[in-house]
Amino acid sequence: MLSSATLSVVRATAPALAEHAQSITKRFYQLMLSEHPELWAYFNPAHQQSGRQSMALANAIVAYATHIENLGVLLPAVELIAQKHCSLGVQPEHYPIVGKYLLRAIRDVLGEAATDDVLTAWGEAYQLLADLLIEREAAIYSEQQSQPGGWKGYRTFVVERKIPECETITSFYLKPADHQSLPEFKPGQYITVKVPPQSTGFRSSEAAATGEIPRGLLSPRNYSLSDQPGKDYFRISVKRESARQEVSPVDGLVSNHLHDGIHEGDRLEIGPPCGEFSIDPVLAARKPLVFVAGGVGMTPLLSMLKTVIAEEPQQPIRFIVLTRNSGSHSHRQELIDLATRCPQLKLHLHYSQPLENDRPGDCFHTQGPVDQNLLKELLATQAAETEYYFCGPSALMQEMISALSGLQIDPSRIHYEFFGPKVALAMA
Fold it and tell me: What region holds the Globin domain (predicted)?
């Protein structure tokens, strides 16, 4: 626990850190990655260039300062961060490095206001959080390695099948090269794929705004498991991302390599399943469920859906798909087949920009922009105990949160994830 003196200093300086949080985190990444370039292997350069990574860290610092006297509020965030760290192989020895450069960044940005007492207090506050994360991450690593079929670090898998799901999304069926068993995972979790940078055409000249990315370093990528547990394979469904040159010329390097450069029979290095966004099929079977999939956000929700149906085929479920058109609608036939076998599963397909051959009533149910009125109509339900699970891009997730808030849905019944660094999604 922190001393009363330390808490007093943190409380007094928290507003200043909140005001300058993003400047502090930008400076932090500049300092740390320039002096420890080997740490680029833990960061997605596209997220660095776009500013999403620094914004996510800034939000985390503000939340920590706000709740430092009631850390129980932060336990869900601690779990999210710990799972992400374990997916990337973060180790205890990395924490002193992070602490050092975070304090240097605070001093650089706040100037004379960052007195020795202030830096000492924030150093102690940081160490408390670091200790929480190190303890939880040690437990996760132990769980991953000790369960049947589990492993530590990376394991070689073979691409058994490669199946296009739509114009932009392809599924990869992965089996262990050692022919040994696979561990159980929680539906909604992800695995980590490590791709050699030279195979993607990645060049050190494609530098992030915060510094030069060393040749030979490219961070692993997380991809949701899109099938249910208990199979003899892992399935990931990867969207081909287009590079946005004005934001990040390194965007889409790994996804494009998987689509174009990886073929059936090729090998990939895979990390164990991680992630806190999941569903307990036994508990979920007691309540009506609504799933909302925005684009490639379909992937973790499809794993959840198939798992719940396998546990309780009569479970009332509504599955809503929000996508542009049939060209971007992944796993369409798989969903239709599930609904055919399970009458309690009700599909609703919404296309924002239907193609000429997308026929209403056949290919989709509703069309047009995704706005608050549409979401409230789709999300409204008569069952007060309904649980909501949704996943997609951050803009859609904010709209979802606002719509559910407008419907006065208890936040405890709202479960979500979006891809990329976690940022704050406020209840409207």
Answer: 1-138
Helix pair 116-146, 4-19: axis angle to 10 deg? 90
Q: Which tokens sit at 337? A: 């087949």
Catalytic, out of 29, 64, 95, 389: 95
The CATH number of the domain covering residues in 155-274: 2.40.30.10
Per-residue burial over 45-83, b if 16 or more Cβ lie within 10 Å, else e, is: bbbbbbbbbbbbbbbbbbebbeebeebeebeebbebbbb
142 annotated binding-site participant: no
Q: Does 319 appear as a known binding residue? A: no
pLDDT in tens, 338-357: 999 999 999 999 999 999 99
Check 29, 101, 137, 389 and give the catalytic one: 137
222 is in an annotated binding site: yes
CATH class given for the domain over 4-146: mainly alpha
d(CA 230, CA 232): 7
Note the CATH number of domain 281-417: 3.40.50.80
Q: Hey, how many other C-beta atoms are within 10 angstroms of the C-beta on 367?
A: 16
In sequence order, the β-bridge partners of residue 169 are 239
Give the pLDDT confidence of 242-261 residue by residue, as tens digits.
765 444 455 678 899 999 99
Look at the pTM and tell me if it is higher than 0.85: yes
Residue 398: CA atoms inside 13 Å, Cβ hemisphere, count? 7
Asked if 173 is an active-site residue, the reply is no
16-45: per-residue pLDDT in tens? 998 999 999 999 999 999 999 888 888 776
Question: Is 95 an annotated catalytic residue?
Answer: yes
Residue 389 labeled ligand binder: no
Q: Residue 310's CB: how many other CB atoms inside 10 A?
A: 13
Q: What type of residue is 172?
A: F
The amino acid present at 196, given as its one-letter code, is P
- CA–CA gap between residue 339 and residue 345 (Å, rounded): 5
